[in-house]
Design brief:
The protein is of the alpha+beta class. It has nine helices and seven strands; from the N terminus they run βαβααβαβαβαββααα.
């Protein structure tokens, strides 16, 4: 099945997802489940928050941010406290502190939700990326997405201020779910190493040309609103993505057209 490059309806988007699933199945019939990432503008690079500024690309920035977050955040943690450095890092990402993590989900409609609801302007063309995490991790000789306790993964999160250099290329990781939001959003992560380029700029080095693909949501403002409505019919709403009182309040504001504000992309 050929991959669509553009979609403006749920049906076209689902057809793209089906084609992605076919592409990520090898000749022996082994299925490698895709991850998806929605972005508000198709021109955005697959670059983690820390590496989007010159200051963040300094080697010391990650250490300083990790140290300050864990030092100050514990009294603010509503659910159970993180138990190790990786859990702290995942928590940082979900509260939008700059990290080397890039959010993905194994639920395509969730990625579409974030793409549509994070456009920086009404004329921006959102997009959804699909990644084969198995293909990415074959570069690192890992069989599938890595767990935080896997041998060698600790190199991607060395002790703060240890001076250890990060591996060059990103890896795909399955996180420990430390909060309800991660569970309902079907969270996964890629973890960038020392290379500050976007993942989409590393296709040749990581043999990802067939395993990292994108569809642009080629829809005008009215068509975007229709897509949002159809996602609601499919059960993808503010409260399913953000199961708390803030999510409920935002859902009511949007339903009654009292507020146009929406959450940022993952």
């Amino acid at each position: 099945m050929a991959l669509l490059r553009k979609a403006k309806t749920i049906a076209e988007f689902v057809a793209w997802v089906e084609a992605v699933a076919d592409r990520f199945t090898d000749r022996a019939g082994l299925y490698e489940a895709p991850w998806f990432r929605g972005v508000g503008d198709s021109r955005f690079k697959l670059l983690p928050g820390l590496y989007r500024t010159k200051e963040g690309r300094k080697r010391s920035s990650d250490d300083e941010l990790r140290n300050e977050f864990s030092r100050k955040a514990l009294p603010l943690v509503a659910e159970r406290a993180p138990r190790d450095d990786w859990e702290w890092y995942f928590l940082m990402q979900h509260y939008r502190a700059p990290t080397r993590l890039l959010d993905w989900t194994d639920a395509a409609l969730i990625a579409l939700y974030f793409a549509l609801n994070s456009r920086p302007s009404p004329d921006a063309r959102a997009a959804v990326w699909a990644l084969n995490p198995f293909a990415l991790n074959r570069y690192h000789n890992f069989v599938g997405p890595a767990g935080s306790d896997w041998e060698g993964v600790d190199k991607y999160l060395p002790a703060a201020y240890s001076g250890r250099r990060l591996p060059k290329y990103p890896i795909a990781m399955d996180p420990t779910f430390t909060m309800q939001r991660m569970l309902v959003q079907h969270s996964h992560f890629t973890v960038h190493g020392g290379d500050v380029r976007g993942l989409d700029d590393m296709l040749d080095e990581l043999s990802l040309k067939r395993h990292l693909v994108r569809v642009t949501i080629d829809a005008d403002q009215q068509e975007v609103e229709t897509l949002r409505l159809h996602l609601t019919f499919l059960g993808i709403t503010e409260t399913t993505m953000f199961p708390d009182l803030e999510g409920l309040a935002r859902e009511l504001r949007l339903e009654y057209k009292l507020d146009a504000s929406r959450p940022k992309a993952i």
